[in-house]
Amino acid sequence: MDEAVLTEDGVRLWATRGGEGTPVVFCHGGPGIWDFLGDLAELLTDRATVHRWDQRGCGRSQRRGPYSVARSVADLGAVRRHFGLDRMALLGHSYGTQLALQYALDHPERVSKLVYVSGTGIDNRDTWRPTYQRNLRANLGKHLKRWETLDSRKRTEAEDRELCALQWSADYADRERALEQAKAAATPWYGVNFECSATINAEVNRTSGTPELRAACEKLDVPVLIVHGAEDIRPNWALDSLEQALPRVSRKTLNGAGHLPWVEDPNGFRTVVGDFLADRR
After folding, report:
1. Which CATH number is 203's domain given?
2. Cα separation of the two ends of the chain
3. Domain of 122, in residue numbers
């Protein structure tokens, strides 16, 4: 059932919940897109009560700023309060790992566990982005020229969807089904908030790799599970920076999976994440 979360500054956020068990709140990727983690939630509904939401300005939430990581952290707090959660596990995917991690750093007393799925660690983005860009272009293959054409000019809404589907197709290990799976992720299509994306990405670029971020991670007394697909075009070694900084961390790489490991290894993902959430230690 869809629910409306009202933030302290009056913005309406779309949210939903389902399942039974440990309360966990998802933080979707982007920034600037919407929660398309419904199939991930289905894997965990017999082991967790899953709360999903669209971040400010994205998807089914009200398209109104301001846009910043701090604002998103506050909005996540509004989601927590709306559902009456004193403490919660957090699961972040892609950019959502950064949001979930920042919330845990700011409010560790509210976070029981953190699942960090397909993130890129805490080093400066310049350390891994060249490798990512090379892998992206390699995986686009015959679609590269079309992607470059769309990326270089103003687009219609339909072309925005085509651009995203092409780019997202590079995120799957199964190259034969990649475009089909990417189009499924883009359905239904809620549009990209490019202002939100640019603003938050610029902020993340400024703050990643700082000594302050590493020092905060070194003090985080929250169990963290890092999950990554072995075939993700974002290099696995980018996660070493985070793993080395966290005092309570475990890490699992899922073979044969890309950036959405629950799609390409659902059983492995369900086992690893479900067991972590159920562990009461």
Report:
1. 3.40.50.1820
2. 32
3. 2-127+191-278
The rounded distance, in Å, linking the Cα atoms of 25 and 232 is 23
Q: Report if residue 65 sits inside a domain.
A: yes
Using the Cα atoms of residue 126, residue 130, residue 131 and residue 135 in order, give the sign of their dihedral.
positive
The total of structural domains in the chain comes to 1
C-alpha to C-alpha distance for 265 and 117, rounded to whole angstroms: 13
DSSP-derived pairing of the beta strands 249-254 and 224-229: parallel
pTM of the model: 0.97
Task: Evaluate whether 45 touches 74 at the Cβ level (below 8 Å).
Answer: no
Is 80 domain-assigned? yes
pLDDT in tens, 193-220: 999 999 999 999 999 999 999 999 999 9
SS3 193: coil
Answer whether residue 253 is part of any domain.
Answer: yes
**Of 33, 2, 16, which Cα lies nearest the Cα of 193?**
33
| Residue appearing with tokens 């979360």 | 5
pLDDT band of residue 261 (cuts 50, 70, 90) is very high
Biggest alpha carbon distance in the chain?
Answer: 52
Considering the domain boundaries, does residue 104 fall inside one? yes
What are the contacts of 54-57 at 24+ separation with CB within 8 A? 54/13, 54/14, 54/15, 54/28, 54/190, 55/13, 55/27, 55/28, 55/30, 55/31, 55/99, 55/196, 56/7, 56/11, 56/13, 56/196, 57/32, 57/193, 57/195, 57/196
Task: Note the helical H segments in 152-258.
Answer: 157-169, 178-185, 194-207, 211-218, 240-245
